[in-house]
Structures are given as C-alpha cells and as structure tokens.
C-alpha cells in the first residue's frame, strides 16, 4: 500500500504565550545595525509580567518589570533609511512597558549620531510609570518618575569620557548643562 502525501496541507507556525518570566544572573546583547542601536545588559534579578507576548505578531507588551542589580549600556546612531520601494516587507517588532521598578542600577547611554550625547545613570531605586513606550516610533511618555539616591551625569562630546566619569570615581559633579524633563509627577530623594 502506497501512502500519498497531502500537498495541500501547510504547517502553521507555533505561537508561544508567556505570562511571567523570572531571570537570575542574566547577560544579553541586542544589536540592530539597521535601526542604529546596541543594547548590552547584565542583570542580577529580573521579574516580568506580560499583558501580551506574541512571537507571531512580533509584539511584546509588558505590564511590569522589576530589575535588581543591573549594569548595562545603550548606544544609538543615525542610520540612513532606504526608500519605501527598496525596503523589505519585514514587520517591525512592537514593544511596550507600563511600570518599571529598578534597584541598584548603573547604566551608560551614548548617542553616536551628530549630537554626541552621553550619560551615566546610577540609581539605588527608581520607579517609572509609563503611559507610552514605543521603541519603533522612539516615543516615551512618562506619568510618574520616582528616584531614590540618583546620580545622573549628562555630557556632550566635549565632556569627560565614561572612564573619567565622576560617578564611577565617587566625586561631586559640576552641572554645566541644562536639561528639561516633562512629567506629571516627579519625586527625587537624596539626588545629586
């Protein structure tokens, strides 16, 4: 007896659902040269609760994130975008987060585009209430910021390097630049 295969049947991709994720002592690197971003992170503990986690729809919506004992960096740069007729049909990932709580965090930010901005952020504790976080559209709207013992230094390309950063050397910081922040509620305890 010969069995004929049914060529009309197609396999469908698997959908993976995740409600919660718990990590301990994790290191990861995300690099997307077509979007101009490298994200490097080392995390002691992370707990995540998801509203939606869909690999098929390329969408992750996080209800809350709790991160403890983390170090990392993000580097951004401008990328020349291809015209619409030359671009691929690839759908971009959608990512959002609502509530972010951080303890013992040291993070470096670098913008290698024409602005050449850099920042070092050290937080003993932070809570961020997020209304909108859309990485694809580069949009962040915050409803509440609460920092405990923050130490944040912004610098331009003419400033000291990350290795000479006063935060890393536990030295006082001179403020020679002005920044503005729009937020519904901002609470800072013991910041400098």
Tell me what the structure shows.
The protein has strands spanning 20-32, 37-54, 59-76, 94-111, 118-134, 139-148, 151-155, 185-189. Strands 1, 2, 3, 4, 5, 6, 7 and 8 form an 8-stranded mixed beta sheet that branches. The protein is mainly β and 192 residues long. The termini are far apart.
Q: Whole-number average pLDDT?
A: 76
User: What is the CA-based Rg, rounded?
Assistant: 21 Å
Beta percentage is: over 45%
The number of distinct β-strands equals 8
The amount of helix comes to under 10%
Low-confidence stretches: 175-182
- Taken from the alpha-carbon principal axes, the silhouette is globular
The helix/strand class is mainly beta
Distance between the termini: 81 Å
The profile of the biggest β sheet is: 8 strands, mixed
The helix/strand order is EEEEEEEE
| Count of alpha/pi helices | 0
